[in-house]
Structure formats: structure tokens, C-alpha cells
Design goal:
The structure holds two protein chains of two kinds.
Chain A lengths: L1 E5 H12 L13 E7 L2 E7 L3 E8 L1 E4 L1 E6 H10 L4 E6 L5 E5 L2 E5 L16 E6 H9 L16 E7 L2 E7 L3 E6 L7 E2 L3 E6 H14 L4 E6 L3 E6 L2 E6 L8 H4 L6 E6 H12 L8 E7 L2 E8 L3 E8 L7 E6 H10 L4 E6 L6 E6 L6 E6 L5
Antiparallel strand pairs in A: 1-5, 1-7, 2-3, 2-6, 3-4, 4-18, 7-8, 8-9, 10-14, 10-16, 11-12, 11-15, 12-13, 13-26, 16-17, 17-18, 19-24, 20-21, 20-23, 21-22, 24-25, 25-26
Helix pairs in contact in A: 1-2, 3-4, 6-7
Chain B lengths: L5 E6 L2 H9 L8 E3 L11 E2 L1 H4 L9 H7 L4 E3 L3 H18 L3 E5 L2 E5 L4 H4 L2 H16 L3 E6 L2 H11 L4 E3 L5 H5 L12 H9 L5 H6 L2 H8 L1 H10 L20 E12 L2 H22 L2 E11 L4 E12 L2 H15 L6 E12 L10 H21 L33
Parallel strand pairs in B: 2-4, 7-8
Antiparallel strand pairs in B: 1-6, 1-7, 2-3, 5-6, 9-12, 10-11, 10-12
């Protein structure tokens, strides 16, 4: 194999692959990137067996073929080269010559045969605007569980229906739910439902950022994998298996007590008060009272703190405990200026959602209280 | 540090003595506690009269019968022993705030600095001895020394029903003529190893260089050298009395009288074990993050499988759901099982954070089990149980020296 590519193109595509390259070196070949030259493009493939990515960039191909080299080393090196062309020529012993301007390098590679085969993309299920996907991910991913033992919660549920896309994530304590409008949801050919691993969501966000706001993602799935094709780039992920909790049951049907608040005021009030919350539990108390919402914290070691945020609330007084981090996660994820904070009683889930005009999609964030 | 004064209070033939309280006709006779002579299982305790025939705890019941066929064999009553153990603790705790129950029938009491209250050690011990008898109608023996180790050895020498004080400075002379086996921590294996070196008495041990013992037995050898001179060394002697580190794990096991491969029987037994573990977790106010299953087949091959739960628990039903899952995943269907065990560890405080799903059920069980615990406190352990465990009822076996670290306070 022998080809010439633009350095900037190569650096960009290699960078997008790095998140997928296996960090642990238990299987050496997974630290490598597969390069394949055919037609007028070079295709780059990386996988950690859970996740796979296939990118490509234009190239002048002198001889078609394929080979693998260490992904990290190749990127680190090429990034340091001057702007211009990079020429790569693979040798019989799996090594590759890299030449660019006055630079000459020989990089040690491995046989292409030991590189795992990625599954073929099946028939398309939907075509979705990437900005919709990215915005759904950014509003749910933080609620995914970090605990490995709750593996069915280590990802988000994606539901595709003709009436629109839904994404739901939970760690068992709080749940984030986004329902996109049909207009934003693109074109869905058939109903589909799958669990996307957290890592795939992070990679998808990177691909979406790179693709620009008008791009669309072609989505497909087989029994074990999900496929997202964005332009020349394809992300393949294993599906998470297991039963996602019945989220419809968790979404509250009614709340008696609703306080509308200015988001930034509430967020910074919680941020300050949380400094004096118990470090392990992060517990704060939220009190709805006439004309204001009060936030309290106290910790045996550090002291106590209190804030008041104005609100038009007129209902009965209620005080309820929450993990400050859970509330902040939501308040930091929304662009809107106002939030509606809704409660029922001390033992039922509270809910937050963006408030104000011009909110088309539905975003609901449900948080279970703490015992106080 | 100034000279300390420790009491080691050891109840005389505890299980047998408790049985005698309930059936005075047993007094003075050879009595074996633990089960019927033809049962599988071991002797939990033997009366002094039975011990004369060579019967001792941990001996198989059938062997005990061969040694002493005229003995009266009685079933153990763990609830009675726990209750009496609590009375013993209450007497001790009223006497000194620094009490550490080393097992169900023995305790260390730190008596340092109580001279003005109780007088010199022997007088104080005499007073305690009388109070114990009055309050519990049970005999005990008390060893007094400047270290817990010597106090323990001393109480053994004081038996039965005696009080003995080793005056500070005379430890080595007192220990020297004793067999090495008398040193706590020296078991059959260490004894053999020491005998092989020509060391038979504690005095032989004390004469050796520390370095020699360390070379032979490692760190444990150093502890042994200290022990031979009467110093508290190694293991749990490193923590002070009253410095409650809390249990590290809570577990229950059951050996079937006949091996079984019947699923209903096995799962029911697991449910019963989970109930017992859950009850003790709640008594200690602990919530377990790690739950483990122990399974021994007829051929003695044994597996343990553990799982960490998302939410630490002390509820029987949540323990059972995890254990049953572990059991179903790991048991070879049809293979006969000899022993089942349920172990909990990685204790954490109760989480204040409520769950989105199952919180209401969790609350209901919490209240139901709190009520069940109250019923058990009043009417005994068998007053209430999960329906799932009804078939798993078995007689709890008792050991005077339970495995694991001693030193836990009785459950309060």
C-alpha cells in the first residue's frame, strides 16, 4: 500500500479515532489503527471491540492495500509535521515509511490479518439531524449510572417512533427524559428501541460537533450492534443488553406544588450552599415558602449556609432533601433562563423542566429526594 | 504507660450451666450439648463430668457417644445462651465501662484505675464474682493480670469457679511451666511445629531469641515471642478494649443433616439464612454492600460467589433476591449440597438517597421487618418468618468459640 494525504486531513480523522482505540494493551492489535487505501480515499478503522469507528479522507493512491500501525504514535508524530502532504508506504514486514518534506520515519506496524473485522451496516432505520442527537445526548448523558454493577443503566435508552425520538437516562436516583418534536426527529422508517452505551454517546457527540449543524446521521441496527453513519464517518457500537427500567412509570403524572424560578439565580444559590453540604451525601434542603424558595445546608465539619431565591410560589410550605449535584447537573445542561421546580411530598420524586416560551421539545428531569 | 489491670472473665461450662438452669436434674451429671448421639454434627459443649471421659467441644457427636455412652445428650438452645450472655454483659458493663466480649461466654474487662472504687484487684474480682452469681446464677472464673493475654491464661488456671491474680512482674515465672498450647493463638499445627523444635513449655519459648522465632514463623513468630513473656502482641490484641471497630462481616451457614439436591429445600434454606443475617444486620445497624453465597457439595468441593448491590441493604427480602440469583447462576442442578452459607460485608451507612423504582416496596419491607423484629424480641426467633423460608427451618447450631475475630459486644 502506498498513498499521499494532506496532513491536516489525516490529523483530523486520526483524532476522531483516538477515543475508540483501546487504552489497555491486553490485546496489542487494538492499539493499532487499520489503514486501507482504495479508489481515491484512505479509510481509518479503530475498535476496542465494544465500539468501532471508521473514518476516511481523500488521498492520492499509488498502490491499493492495507496495514496497521500504532494509532497514538501515528497521531502524535503526524501532528508534529509541518503543513503539507504526508506520504505513507507499507513494507513487506508490516512496517511503514512516512515521509513529509524533509522528515523520514519508519514506524513498526502489525499484520492486518489480526485486526478484528467490524460488522457490516444493515438496512437504514432512520435519518436524524445530528444536532438533535447531540442535544438529546447532552441533556441525558449526565444521568447515566457510573456504577458498573448496574450495567443496564450504563447507557441511555433511545426510542425511535414516527412521532419522534425519545432518549432516557437514569442511574436509579434521577432520570432525564427528552422527547424531540417530529420536525426535529428527521425521518424514521420503523420503530426501534435500543440501549446506547455511555462511551458511544460521547463519541457520537464528537462526530456531531465535527460534522456541523446541518448534517444528518443515518441510523441502523442489528441484533447486537448500532450504526451511526455521519458523512464519511461510521460509528459502530455494541448494544447494551438487559431491561431498562419502565421509565413511563417513573415520570410523575401530577405535581401539586410548582415554583417558577430564574435559572441562574437558583443555580448559583445551590452552588454556594452546596459548599457546606455533607461531602459524601451532598444533601441540601429545599424549602418552598410564600414568595421564595430557600436552600439550606449544614455539615458537622464545615458549617452551614442558606440562600433565598424569589419565586411567585403561593402554595403550602414544604421542605425536602436533595443531592445538590443532581440538581446542578440539570441546571447546567439547559440553555433556557427559567425553570419550573415541581414537588409533591417528601417521599415522592421532584421534577425540573425548562420554563418559558418557545420550548418545542419536551425535557423532563425527575429526581428522588433524600431522607432529611 | 503505667501498669494496666485486666480481668478475663470466663463462664464455667457455659452452655451446660445454662441448660442446668432450665433442668436442675442435669447437675453433676455427664452432659453433652449439641444434639442426639446418632446425629451428624459436633459437640457444642460438655459438662465437667463428661470431660473426664475425654469428651470436648468440636468432637463428633457419634465419637462422644462412644467415649461416654451414659452421657445425657441435649439439643443446644442458642436463644437461651444469647440471653444469658446478655445478662453476663450487663453485669460486667455495670462494673466497668470498658468491656469486650471475646465470645458468647468470655469477656475482657479493663479495670485499670478502679482501685478507689473497688479496692485492690483480688477484692474487686471477688465482688464481681459474687455479683455474677447473684445476677445470673452462673459460675465464672476470673483471671487478673497486667495483660489480656496473661489474664486469659490465668482464668483457665483458675477454673472452675475461681479467681487468680498474677502479680505484675511475675508473668514469666507463672507462664514458664505451662504447655505452649496454653498460649492463645497456638493451635495444633503451631504446637507440632514447636514440639519439633524441642519447645514444649512457655518457658522454652521465652528463652529463644526473637530473631530465631521471626525467621521460623515470620511476623507471627515475633508475636509469639512477645506472648511468651506475657505481652499482648499480634492480632486483635493491638486494639484497646472498648475501641469498637464493628464487625467486618456477618454470615450464617447451615449443614444439612442429609445432603440434598431439592431446589425448594435449598432455596428455602437460603431464605432462612438471609433472614438470620438480615436480623443481625439490623441489630448492629449495618447495611451490606457485598452479598456472598457459599455452597459446598457432597464431595466437599466448595464455591463462594459474591455480588455488590447498588444500594447497601439490611432487608431479608433484598438479601434473598441477590442470594437466590447467585444460587441459580452457580449451582449445578441436580448436584447434592452439603452446606449453604450467606455472607454479608462491605458495611456502609444507610443511604439517604431514595430510589426512583422500588422505594415504596423498600419502605414497606423496612416497616414490616421492624415489626417482625419486635415480635421476635418478645416471642423468640421463630415467631415470624418469610413464607419462602418456612421449609428451611432448622435448628441453629451453637459454638462456644465462633470462628472469626472475637471481641464483639453482645447484640444490644
Amino acid at each position: 500500500m502506498e498513498f499521499t494525504v494532506n496532513r491536516a486531513d489525516l490529523v483530523r480523522e486520526l483524532s476522531l479515532s483516538q477515543g475508540v482505540v483501546e487504552k489497555k494493551t491486553t490485546i496489542p492489535i487494538l492499539s493499532n489503527i487499520l489503514l486501507e487505501a482504495a479508489g481515491d480515499r484512505v479509510t481509518l478503522t479503530a475498535t476496542d471491540l465494544e465500539l468501532g469507528i471508521r473514518c476516511s479522507c481523500p488521498a492520492r493512491i499509488k498502490k491499493e492495500g492495507s496495514g496497521t500501525v500504532p494509532a497514538r504514535k501515528l497521531l502524535d508524530y503526524v501532528r508534529l509535521l509541518a503543513e503539507g502532504d504526508v506520504h505513507m508506504k507499507f513494507l513487506e514486514n508490516h512496517w511503514a515509511n512516512i515521509t513529509s518534506g524533509r522528515s523520514r520515519t519508519r514506524i513498526a506496524g502489525m499484520s492486518r490479518e489480526s485486526f478484528p473485522e467490524l460488522p457490516e451496516m444493515p438496512e437504514k432505520i432512520a435519518e436524524v439531524p445530528v444536532r438533535t442527537l447531540a442535544s438529546m445526548i447532552s441533556r441525558t448523558a449526565f444521568a447515566i449510572s457510573m456504577e458498573e454493577s448496574r450495567f443496564t443503566l450504563n447507557g441511555a435508552l433511545l426510542v425511535m417512533r414516527p412521532e419522534g425520538l425519545t432518549m432516557v437516562a437514569t442511574d436509579g436516583h434521577r432520570l432525564a427524559y427528552v422527547q424531540a418534536t417530529p420536525a426535529e426527529s428527521g425521518q424514521v422508517d420503523k420503530q426501534f428501541r435500543a440501549l446506547i452505551p455511555k462511551k458511544a454517546m460521547a463519541e457520537l457527540t464528537k462526530l456531531a460537533d465535527e460534522a456541523g449543524s446541518d448534517a444528518t446521521a443515518i441510523f441502523a441496527g442489528d441484533d447486537n450492534h448500532l450504526f451511526f453513519q455521519i458523512g464519511h464517518r461510521l460509528l459502530i457500537t455494541r448494544k447494551l443488553t438487559g431491561n431498562f427500567p419502565d421509565y413511563e412509570r417513573v415520570l410523575p403524572k401530577d405535581h401539586s406544588l410548582v415554583a417558577k424560578l430564574q435559572k441562574d439565580e437558583l443555580r448559583s444559590a445551590i452552588e454556594r450552599v452546596a459548599q457546606f453540604a455533607d461531602e459524601r451525601s451532598r444533601a441540601i434542603r429545599v424549602q418552598f415558602t410564600n414568595g421564595e424558595v430557600k436552600i439550606f445546608s449544614s455539615s458537622v465539619e464545615t458549617g452551614e449556609s442558606e440562600e433565598s431565591v424569589p419565586s411567585e410560589y403561593q402554595g403550602p410550605e414544604i421542605e425536602i432533601g436533595f443531592n445538590a449535584q443532581y440538581l446542578l447537573d440539570f441546571l447546567r445542561a439547559i440553555p433556557q433562563d427559567h425553570v419550573a421546580f415541581e414537588l409533591k411530598d417528601q417521599k415522592s420524586a421532584g421534577e425540573m423542566k425548562p420554563a418559558g416560551d418557545g420550548i418545542a421539545d419536551q425535557y423532563r428531569y425527575v429526581v428522588m429526594p433524600m431522607r432529611i | 504507660m503505667s501498669v494496666r489491670t485486666y480481668f478475663h472473665v470466663d463462664m464455667d461450662a457455659f452452655f451446660v450451666s445454662v441448660e442446668e438452669l432450665f433442668d436442675p436434674s442435669l447437675k453433676g451429671k455427664p452432659v453433652v450439648v449439641g444434639g442426639r448421639p446418632n446425629e451428624r454434627g459436633v459437640v457444642s459443649a460438655a459438662s465437667y463430668a463428661a470431660r473426664k471421659f475425654g469428651v470436648h467441644s468440636a468432637l463428633p457427636l457419634r465419637t462422644a457417644y462412644k467415649l461416654c455412652p451414659q452421657a445425657i445428650f441435649v439439643d443446644g438452645h442458642p436463644e437461651r445462651y444469647r440471653e444469658c450472655s446478655q445478662q453476663v454483659f450487663d453485669v460486667l458493663h455495670a462494673f466497668s465501662p470498658l468491656v469486650e466480649m471475646a465470645s458468647i461466654d468470655e469477656a475482657y474487662v479493663d479495670m485499670t484505675g478502679t482501685e478507689r472504687l473497688y479496692g485492690p484487684p483480688l477484692k474487686a474480682a471477688h465482688l464481681l464474682h459474687e455479683r455474677m452469681k447473684t445476677a445470673t446464677r452462673l459460675n465464672c472464673s476470673i483471671g487478673i493480670a497486667a495483660s489480656r493475654l496473661v489474664a486469659k491464661i490465668t482464668s483457665d488456671q483458675a477454673k472452675p469457679n475461681g479467681v487468680l491474680w498474677v502479680i505484675p512482674g511475675h508473668e514469666a515465672a507463672f507462664l514458664a511451666p505451662l504447655d505452649v498450647r496454653k498460649v492463645p493463638g497456638v493451635g495444633k499445627v503451631t504446637e507440632q511445629n514447636l514440639h519439633a523444635l524441642g519447645i514444649r513449655k512457655v518457658g522454652d519459648l521465652a528463652r529463644l531469641e526473637d530473631a530465631f522465632l521471626e525467621e521460623r514463623f515470620g511476623k507471627w513468630g515475633l508475636a509469639l515471642a512477645g506472648k511468651s513473656r506475657g505481652i499482648d502482641a499480634g492480632g486483635w490484641f493491638d486494639t484497646e478494649i472498648g475501641e469498637d471497630t464493628g464487625p467486618k462481616s456477618i454470615s450464617h451457614e447451615h449443614t444439612f443433616s442429609e445432603d440434598t439436591a431439592e431446589v425448594a429445600q435449598l432455596e428455602s434454606t437460603l431464605a432462612r439464612l438471609c433472614e438470620m443475617v438480615g436480623r443481625r444486620l439490623r441489630e448492629h445497624g449495618l447495611h451490606a454492600r457485598t452479598i456472598a453465597l457459599k455452597l459446598r457439595y457432597s464431595d466437599f468441593s466448595t464455591i463462594t460467589r459474591a455480588h455488590s448491590v447498588g444500594r447497601p441493604t439490611q432487608l431479608d427480602i433484598e438479601l434473598y433476591e441477590e442470594i437466590r440469583l447467585l444460587f441459580r447462576r452457580n449451582w449445578k442442578p441436580g448436584a447434592a449440597v452439603r452446606l449453604l452459607g450467606v455472607n454479608t460485608s462491605s458495611f456502609e451507612e444507610e443511604t439517604e438517597q431514595m430510589d426512583l423504582i422500588g422505594e415504596a416496596r423498600h419502605e414497606r419491607w423496612k416497616h414490616a421487618l421492624a415489626a417482625a423484629d419486635k415480635l421476635r424480641d418478645r416471642f423468640g426467633e421463630s415467631a415470624v418468618s418469610l413464607a419462602a423460608s418456612m421449609r428451611g427451618k432448622f435448628r441453629e447450631r451453637t459454638h462456644e468459640n465462633p470462628a472469626g475475630l472475637p471481641g464483639k459486644k453482645p447484640e444490644r
